[in-house]
Request: fold
Amino acid sequence: MSAPGAIGAPDVRSRAGLPPVLWSLLFGNFVIGAGVMVVAGTLNEISESLQVSVATAGQLITVGGVVMCLGAPLLAAVVAGWDRRRLLALVMVWYALLHLACAAAPGFAALLPLRALTLVSPAIFTPQAAACVGLLVPAHERGRAITFVFLGWSVASVLGMPMGAWIGGVLGWRAAFGAVAMLALASAAWVWRAMPDGVRPPALSGRAWGRTLGSRPLMLCIAVTVLYAAGQFVLFSYFAPYFRQTLGTGPTALSLLFMWFGLFGFIGNVLMSRHIDRIGADRAVLLGVGLMAVSLAAWPLGTSVVAAALVLVPWALGCFSSNSAQQARLVGMAPELAAASIALNSSAMYAGQAIGAAGGGWLMVHSGFGLLHWAGLAALLAAMTLSMLASRVARG
Reply:
């Protein structure tokens, strides 16, 4: 059964009870996530190859975060009337071509603007894929479907980021970027084949944007996203150099740590997908952010690879599941404003990444690695406090 009012929504259901087209969107988010995280996984190799400091190389993450932050809402207006089959396939082709261009960059001065152009794709794909879910599933399955599609980011952390870190460590960062390009082309083909024609979420009017920006509950939730994203990326951006310097990890050990992190990130998102409708999206967000705070509070205990892996578990469980829950929370608050609120939430996530990466780089230059987890913990605790306030405001 297709969603009420859906245009071209497929009738065939998967074994999970969701349209098979959602698998192509999940894979697309996997590729998007792998490409976004490939810099963090290869930061050591980029720094050495292009002869810049780790903090300077980390600005690739900051610049990318700024582009995605500004691009998500602005481009949502630009592409509002586009057929989603064509839009999402074209976005993945762009992602492939620009990753190839980055791989061929002769130096850091060329890589930085190319990386900025590359990340136009995440600014479009993830929010627009989520926004069109409402036309592919019935309303009562919307929360589950959105968290399902967002599993792609968790899979990227399980496979994509470790793969990038390993390829970067063994074959060089350029090979890792090339691998993302090949995956992006495969994603473009799958979306083109699976997505039905005529899927066009309602265009965002100025009035809709005004209602979204004027909604106190929605804007408080989006501020929560900025805080917990910044809290994560102040340290997450520098995992590779941190673990190499403090634990002496090589490419294999580093990729295994990333895979461990990603595995529990995937588990956390699966559990969130199954239970979010029962526990409620607002409590689910609080749970996810709280789990991440536990890891940052316990961070000094990670004095060996095994200990660090154990400390990472709560963070991983909450990392991707919290944003899945946050997207479902926003859709549930105002379904008719979902395209705008999800675009703003994506923007907030990317803004947090930029703030966290820039702040972490500054702290690293001035104080080393020792303060990164405390700064991240402070931001996460602030996010939890603001999230509880948002829930009270939403209840009136």
Remarks:
- The CA atoms of residues 234 and 311 lie 17 Å apart.
